[in-house]
């Protein structure tokens, strides 16, 4: 029988087949023919979001690239996630985005639809940017509603159920298996809560990741052709599910959830050994494990894909990638840097899949086989390989993701959890606001 690790490495080789043919934004719209891009050289600016560790790893990639391209200077600028998007929005409006802005498929429409990003199809077709190792369905998630490619995905983040394996085993409970559903999860969490005498998971209803997992497991999407891809009843059932668990003390309280809003992963109760389970993007597993190693030595954390349903695993791939600004005056160097970032194995090992699982099949396999890759990171990469084999359809996100799914969803569910609105009232108000925002 193959080991889990051997299966994961083998799965990488099958990922292209598993995702090939998944419907994305449709056929790519015809791009303009690439003019003479000129020579690679000169200066470009690359902007990204992240903390200290990501900044160091990104700079290592930049240094590797410049060592191989002595005539190029890559100036890096970085800030935290929220400040990055605030700044990018202003820059896009003024036509002065950095030549290579880091992008994310969940917010890309706010930039591609306003003409701030350059279509990349011509660069791919002519081999300037090699995407042959990126599964087709993953690559298609970098397409806009017009079918054109605006982002080359390099890192796949995705929702996960993080689990304190040590606590669960000490409680005498089974660990989840891939394919578990929402009903099983509720019963399992209830048993853990009764054994521990304290909440076993975070508050569910206010989180966009959990809503997407709920909708995707039912075969839907947050967006469909630029409009909402789910209906009122989906939201009502999701919030009722969350409310039943909250009222039973299985999730943390609304008050506690408010206190923890914006708190870094390392300071969350789960990372400090105070909670058995936690919904969080899988690329945070290494940080959570590093934290718990210091406060509760001997504790083992692991992660599982989102609950499944008739639509399969409730996961979408939240892809971070690299784009080229429409107003970039050094496209040749910008494209060459992207090609290096995506394909160079030494760069991939230096970056360590810091912003999601490496989407390049060959580099993903190299990371899984490397003795320098921590076990917690390999767990994340194995989950991505599993999802890549599961025929997960790419997602095309519409406009206003932040205002609808980060701001409004949280605001209305908070009113439910604090008893200010019924689930039905809040769902009606949310749907009306979202539809109004989307026009």
Automatic annotation (TrEMBL):
Q: Does the keyword Signal apply?
A: yes
State the coiled-coil residue ranges.
Answer: none
Q: Which Gene3D superfamilies match?
A: Periplasmic binding protein-like II
Which Pfam family would be a valid example here? SBP_bac_8
Q: Decide whether keyword Signal is in the record.
A: yes
Q: Which UniProt keywords apply?
A: Signal
Q: Which residues form the signal peptide?
A: 1-20
Q: Which domain of life is it from?
A: Bacteria
Q: What is this protein called?
A: Extracellular solute-binding protein
Organism, scientific name: Microbacterium salsuginis
């Amino acid at each position: 029988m193959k080991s889990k690790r051997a299966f994961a490495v083998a799965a990488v080789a099958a990922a292209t087949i598993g995702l090939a043919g998944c419907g994305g934004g449709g056929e790519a719209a015809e791009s303009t023919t690439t003019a003479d891009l000129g020579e690679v050289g000169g200066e470009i600016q690359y902007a990204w979001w992240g903390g200290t560790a990501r900044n160091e790893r990104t700079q290592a990639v930049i240094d590797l690239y410049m060592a191989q391209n002595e005539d190029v200077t890559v100036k890096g600028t970085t800030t935290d996630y929220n400040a990055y998007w605030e700044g990018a929005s202003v820059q896009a409006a003024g036509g002065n985005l950095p030549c290579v802005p880091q992008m994310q498929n969940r917010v890309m429409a706010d930039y591609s639809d306003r003409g701030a990003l350059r279509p990349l199809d011509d660069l791919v077709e002519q081999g300037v940017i090699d995407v042959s190792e990126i599964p087709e369905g993953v690559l298609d998630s970098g397409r806009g509603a017009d079918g054109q490619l605006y982002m080359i995905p390099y890192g796949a983040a995705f929702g996960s159920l993080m689990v304190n394996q040590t606590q669960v085993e000490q409680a005498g409970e089974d660990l989840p298996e891939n394919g578990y559903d929402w009903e099983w999860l509720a019963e399992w969490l209830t048993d853990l809560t009764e054994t521990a005498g304290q909440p076993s998971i975070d508050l569910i209803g206010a989180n966009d990741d959990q809503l997407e997992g709920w909708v995707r497991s039912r075969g839907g999407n947050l967006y469909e052709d630029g409009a909402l891809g789910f209906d009122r009843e989906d939201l009502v059932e999701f919030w009722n599910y969350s409310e039943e668990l909250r009222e039973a003390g299985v999730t943390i309280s609304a008050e506690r959830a408010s206190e923890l809003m914006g708190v870094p992963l390392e300071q969350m109760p789960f990372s400090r050994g105070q909670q058995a389970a936690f919904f969080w993007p899988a690329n945070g597993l290494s940080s959570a494990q590093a934290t718990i190693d210091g406060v509760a030595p001997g504790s083992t954390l692991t992660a599982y894909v989102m609950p499944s349903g008739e639509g399969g695993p409730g996961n979408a791939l939240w892809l971070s990638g690299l784009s080229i600004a429409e107003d970039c005056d050094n496209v040749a160097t910008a494209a060459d840097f992207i090609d290096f970032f995506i394909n160079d194995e030494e760069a991939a090992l230096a970056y360590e899949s810091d912003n999601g699982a490496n989407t390049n099949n060959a580099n993903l396999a190299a990371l899984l086989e490397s003795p320098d890759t921590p076990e917690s990171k390999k767990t994340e990469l194995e989950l991505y390989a599993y999802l890549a084999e599961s025929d997960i359809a790419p997602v095309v996100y519409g406009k206003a993701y932040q205002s609808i799914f980060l701001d409004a969803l949280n605001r209305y569910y908070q009113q439910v959890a604090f008893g200010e609105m019924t689930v039905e009232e809040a769902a009606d108000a949310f749907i009306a606001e979202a539809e109004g925002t989307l026009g």
